[in-house]
Structure formats: C-alpha cells, structure tokens
Amino acid sequence: MAYYYDADILEEYGKDPERYWNDGTYIMTDGKLFDVDNYASIAHAAGFVIPFFRAYMHPDEETLWYYKKEEMLENLLGWKEALLTRTYDVNPKEQQMRLALVKYFINVYKSKNTVWNYRKGHADLSKTTGIPNIEENWQGRDVTLKSVLVQACNHDAIESARYRTITTSKFNIYETFYDYILHDWEIFQIPKKVYDENLEQYIDWKQEEWFISDKELRLKDELTSICREVPLEERHQHCRNKEKIKGFDFLD
C-alpha cells in the first residue's frame, strides 16, 4: 500500500525546524502522521508515549528498589491486555504507539539477557535491545525512542533536520513511499531489528539485494522515469494513493 501524501501539510515540513517543528513526527503503521513531541506538549502528564518509554527504557532507582524484573513484565502484560481491550480518552494514535512499545518491552523484560540488580540500583537492557545503556535527552525526548519505533516497531520517522527525508526500516520502500518519492523525498533505510527467541535479544535483520521483489524493481524504474520526465508541480497526477485518510493530520 502506498502511503497517502498530503502536500498541504508536508511541503513545508523540515524547511525551518527551529521555527516550526520538533524531531518527533512519525508515520504510523496505517500511514497516518503523529507528532509525538508537539502532542506531548499539550497532553496531560506529557502524554503516554514519552514518560512510558523512559520508565521502561531507563528505570530509575526508585523503580529498581520497589519492583522486581518479573513485576515489570507483569505490568507490561497487563498493559497489553488493557490497550487491546479498553477504550481510552486519549489520542488513538498515541494508544496505538504505546501498544507497539508495550510489545517491544515485553520481549525485553522476559529476556535472560536483561540485567536487573535491585541491590545496586542498576539495570542493563543493552544486550537485549542492542542499544547502549546510556540515557540521552534531546528536546525533552529520549533519542533512543526513534531507534526503537523505527527499527523494532515498524514506524517511520519524518526528519526535521533534513528537508524531505524519512527514516525507515521497511524493505518495500518504493511501494510504501511511492507518492513521497514522487515528490522528491529521500528515503533513508536503517536495519530492522527483530526479536530472536533463541538468543532472547533483538538482532539486525537486513534484506539481501537478490531478494528484492520484481514489484519493487518495477516501481523504482517507474519512479525514476516519472521524476526525470515530469516537472515536480505536475507529479501529483501520478500519485498511487489519492484518498486522504481520516486522522492524517499530525495531532488529530
């Protein structure tokens, strides 16, 4: 499925990141856009996503002293059931993103590689996640959130520091981002991370070049031809998805 491209929203995105945007806009798995940073600034308690991610990615000393690793896993399993069966008075995109993170952390906290030492007030998730056990904050957001959402949760990040750029771990970029590429967007691919049940940790999963589908190759050639022959202002006529989906705007 080609993600819908809304020129009214996306044409100005990334031109002036200092003035307009933070670096926390994602394309959800259904193609909708969600600006996590801006939504957190207007939501109660900074929203679900950011504090939830920090609590489980970087547990503080109080958490380490009061909860065992098994209790953290039990909490996550409870959240998974609740998010799947209950309706919350929050942004549905925020609920969807939190569910993706819950599933991610269930794998992390059930792993034998996740170290939980309550006596020393220390937790080490790095071997399980493949992410260094260092907490960094950037514009009020943990910088590792993007890595987890893009590599392990099948979301895509719209960059604000680079104009018309998306970071993704998807393999079928020409099918998914056809209309974006048609509008001169650059698609930056990074390795996908999948949970290996035998190793009990997330590992990089790269697609071999010889495994690229014929459809992807055909779409790549098609896009190359259109972008070479058709002026940018006329390319909207060649979009593959012309129907705007409900909830496309960043914050709704």
Q: Give the topology string: H per helix, E per strand.
A: HHEEHHHHHEEHEEHEEHHEEEH
Indicate the low-confidence ranges by residue numbers.
Answer: none
Structural class: alpha+beta
Number of strands: 11
Cα gyration radius (Å): 20 Å
* Order of strands across the main sheet: 2-1-7-8-9
Ends: how far apart? 22 Å
Share of helix among residues? 40-55%
Number of helices: 12
Estimate the strand proportion: 5-15%
Question: Whole-number average pLDDT?
Answer: 86
Q: Major sheet, described briefly?
A: 5 strands, mixed
Structural shape:
globular
What would your notes on this structure say?
The chain is α+β, with helices and mostly antiparallel strands and 252 residues long. It is built from twelve helices and eleven strands. It has helices at 7-10, 17-20, 36-42, 49-57, 61-66, 69-85, 92-110, 126-129, 144-152, 173-176, 178-182, 214-229, and strands at 25-27, 33-35, 115-117, 122-124, 137-138, 141-142, 156-158, 165-168, 186-189, 192-196, 201-205. A five-stranded mixed β-sheet has the order 2-1-7-8-9. α6 packs antiparallel against α7 (92-110). The longest helix is centred in the middle third of the chain and has 19 residues, at 92-110. The chain starts with 6 loop residues before the first helix and ends in a 23-residue tail after the last helix. The model has no long low-confidence stretch (mean pLDDT 86).
